[in-house]
Design brief:
The chain is α+β, with helices and mostly antiparallel strands. The protein is built from 15 helices and 29 strands. Helix 2 runs parallel beside helix 7. It catalyses: sulfite + O2 + H2O = sulfate + H2O2.
Length: 576
């Protein structure tokens, strides 16, 4: 982590442009090459020594890790660099050609550590000792980086290729390149991911992250599973429900195991309608203000569903939870069955009092909207933690640990935390901030879309959207302005499907689901364009900030400023 704080500028945690997926492996290779010792030719050493930037070790330390540590990736070099393009990693007649057999011989510190990427050969020997992920880096020794970097599309950055080009020591033979390409077709860890609906807007292909068109959200109080936003950190695991096992640790000094059938038959089934929201929802608006690191989510990384399953409280009580455990335990950790090539799983934790509270409504869910969980949403079992950031709602649940400590997972300790607008990648200390749990008050306009045009003859404009607040706080009002905030009107709230009897207000502290809202108002006279703004208020009278500026943070999380869209008013031809 010292390297993280000393380097200048972290790359994105996840790709902003899914069309650049081919660049991901470059991070590994470039980092691996940072220490070229073991090159057979002293002339090659001299050639590359003159091109190595002095900051290479710090940057490399964040590149190659095959585990979660790579999520903090490479820092951009702020110093002046040569203008090196993608073409520099293509085959060059001035570099020696190595066979895969020769590369494979370099798999130890004694013989050197070499790897390949897209026909290039890279030496990583000197870097191994500096790798923050420890010996995981040796998994790539003597072989291709592509299968490793297929897991970490977070590193899709053009500048990575520039750095990579500095550390190339040779070319892989044409015959071996062809063999790698053929083998690569079966090495893609995402090859078994499920099919997704084409209407989704994709922010990242591998891992898959996508959101629905915003207007779909306000069409239905319950979001259909196919349109529910998808947030994956790793490949979707293939889990056999018949052999599925959930392990519970930290109670009675032993590990207890529950099958899917156990969860369905030994514990009462509960249903909870709850909204899940990604911590990065509306990150795109922060990006417009000032660049941040992360997926460029729009306003639809939020959805609402009815979940069914066993209460976590009931399972923990059956496993031995009691007053004696409450004296020392503070957290409940979750581990998913999704994992990277090193076996590192996705993990998170929530406070114990939320997990065991009768009012907490935490579920070990096996149903979503009345059906089995879809693969993208955690089949066969996931945690649903109402009122809490989506990152703690661990999918494909494999293990529960009652502990005195928070999860040590990267995603709990070094991600999903908020910081001051004045904190940058040079000064950030992830240990100084608490992990996000409850999310702040939120609302957004789903229709009309920004930039839309309406006819003057319509005379009125209908505006729709959603509103939600974390921690079970109920949304009690949404204010809407059609004149940039000069005047305001109160929208009509909806907590059920159209035509259905409205649900009564939930008990205090248990408003887990969003409110959909709508308002129809006259078009401002003579205006050629209207700026629509929405802002929500919850029952604790929390309100949204009016601008992004005071809440901007380097990870682009907790984005909940007033949502604004501009709509043009089109004059009818008969009036022109």
């Amino acid at each position: 982590m010292l390297l993280l704080r000393r380097c200048r500028n972290l790359i994105q945690f996840v790709p902003l442009n899914t069309q650049r997926c081919q660049l991901a492996p470059a991070l590994a290779s470039c980092a691996l090459r940072l220490c070229s010792s073991g090159i057979s030719s002293e002339e090659q050493r001299a050639h590359h020594r003159g091109h190595r930037p002095s900051w290479r070790h710090a940057a490399a330390g964040l590149l190659v890790g095959a585990g979660a540590v790579v999520a903090y990736g490479l820092h951009q070099h702020k110093a002046e660099r040569a203008d090196i393009t993608v073409s520099t990693i293509e085959k060059s007649s001035t570099l020696p050609v190595f066979s895969q057999e020769e590369v494979t011989k370099h798999r130890s510190l004694e013989n050197g550590i070499w790897v390949t990427y897209k026909g290039g050969v890279y030496d990583i020997t000197e870097f191994v000792a500096m790798h923050p992920g420890g010996d995981k880096i040796l998994l790539a020794a003597g072989g291709a980086l592509e299968p490793f970097w297929a897991l970490y599309a977070v590193h899709n950055q053009e500048h990575v290729l520039e750095i990579l080009s500095e550390y190339k020591v040779g070319e892989l033979s044409v015959e071996d390149v062809r063999k790698q390409q053929q083998a690569g077709k079966s090495l893609d860890p995402y090859s078994t991911d499920p099919e997704r609906h084409p209407v989704l807007h994709i922010n990242s292909l591998k891992p898959f992250n996508a959101e629905p068109p915003p207007e779909i959200l306000s069409d239905s109080y319950i979001t259909p599973s196919a349109f529910f936003f998808k947030r994956n950190h790793l490949p979707v695991p293939q889990v056999d429900p018949a052999s599925y096992q959930l392990h519970v640790e930290g109670l009675q000094g032993e590990v207890l195991t529950f099958s899917l059938e156990d969860l369905k038959t030994r514990f009462p089934k509960h249903t909870v309608t709850a909204t899940l929201q990604c911590a990065g929802n509306r990150r795109g608006e922060m990006n417009k203000f000032k660049q941040v690191k992360g997926l460029n989510w729009g306003i639809a990384a939020i959805s609402n569903a009815t979940w069914g399953g066993a209460r976590l409280r009931d399972v923990l009580l059956a496993a031995g939870y009691g007053p004696d455990v409450a004296q020392w335990a503070r957290h409940v950790q979750f581990e998913g069955l999704d994992k990277d090539v090193t076996g590192t799983t996705y993990g998170a934790s929530i406070p114990l009092n939320k997990a065991v509270s009768e009012e907490g409504d935490v579920l070990l869910a096996y149903e979503m909207n009345g059906e089995d969980l879809p693969p993208d949403h955690g089949f066969p079992v996931r945690v649903v933690v109402p009122g809490i950031v989506g990152a703690r709602n661990v999918k494909w649940l494999g293990k529960i640990i009652v502990s005195a400590e928070e999860s040590s997972s990267h995603w709990q300790q070094n991600d999903y935390k908020g910081f001051s607008p004045g904190t940058d990648w040079d000064t950030v200390d992830f240990k100084s901030a608490p992990a996000i749990q409850e999310l702040p008050i939120q609302s957004a306009i789903t229709t009309p879309a920004d930039g839309a045009a309406v006819s003057r003859s319509d005379e009125t404009l209908t505006v729709k959207g959603y509103a939600w607040s974390g921690g079970g706080r109920e949304v009690v009002r949404v204010d809407v302005s059609l004149d940039g905030g000069k005047t305001w009107q109160v929208a009509q709230l909806r907590s059920s499907e159209r035509g259905e009897t409205p649900e009564p207000s939930p008990p205090p502290g248990r408003a887990w689901a969003w409110k959909l809202w709508e308002i129809t108002a006259p078009l401002p006279a003579e205006a050629q364009e209207v700026e629509i703004i929405c802002k929500a208020v919850d029952n604790s009278y929390n309100v949204q900030p009016d601008t992004v500026s005071p809440i901007w943070n380097l990870r682009g999380v907790l984005s909940n400023a007033w949502h604004r869209v501009k709509v043009k008013i089109r004059e009818d031809e008969s009036e022109e």
